[in-house]
């Protein structure tokens, strides 16, 4: 299987582990992620202004490129996935946005939301299958108690993201089980980490992330995994001052470890 792959900016700088171990693991699992040649920043934040099109153009270019190759578009960063999938829905369902974007881009063929956007975790669940993943594990993470941290962007708005149950998701827990670990359910796993508030309201973000970490610790987690670089950054800052420190890693690091390529 071959997919068009959109990496995004952060995976080339602060979150290189998220990408490296995803690519290494894909080879073991038998699928290929071909990086798009001329991808641009997704904008990082989905624009809430209903008449805004400029910050959606780079996402549409990537979506159209995947469409023209007849491939699904795979992402890793939760923020990139959020932006690209919501823009795709705009192009599928909002005639005004679709018309303005296509008029501006002047593509050889107008883009109308045809591309299927998948997060890497959805590839594991829906394309590979967690049962098949389990068969590839050579180094099971036996007896490791791992808490999944979802955050906001993968799950909400649920009607558009269609990723998992926004209040009681299970995809990362099922992933942890497939690689031999013990998933830990804790109340704050879908709460916001504070996001970009870390730039101006650090105390508030520290309080929010401390609640997440303490919730995980209280319920027996010994480590946390996430798919979001910003969430990882915020959790790490709080974790530095936490009484009960947890290992905080990307899910792809655990995947690579279980497959024997880390």
Automatic annotation (TrEMBL):
Gene3D superfamilies with a match to the protein in the record: 1.20.1050.140
One Pfam family linked to the record: CCG
Keywords on record: Heme, Iron, Metal-binding, Oxidoreductase
Domain Cytochrome c, chain residue ranges per copy: 65-183
Record has Iron as a keyword: yes
Keyword presence, DNA repair: no
GO MF terms held by the record: electron transfer activity; heme binding; metal ion binding; oxidoreductase activity
Transmembrane spans: none
Record InterPro entries: Cys_rich_dom, Cyt_c-like_dom, HdrB/HdrD_reductase
Family annotation (PANTHER family): COB--COM HETERODISULFIDE REDUCTASE SUBUNIT B 1
Name assigned to this protein: Disulfide reductase
Organism: Clostridium estertheticum subsp. estertheticum
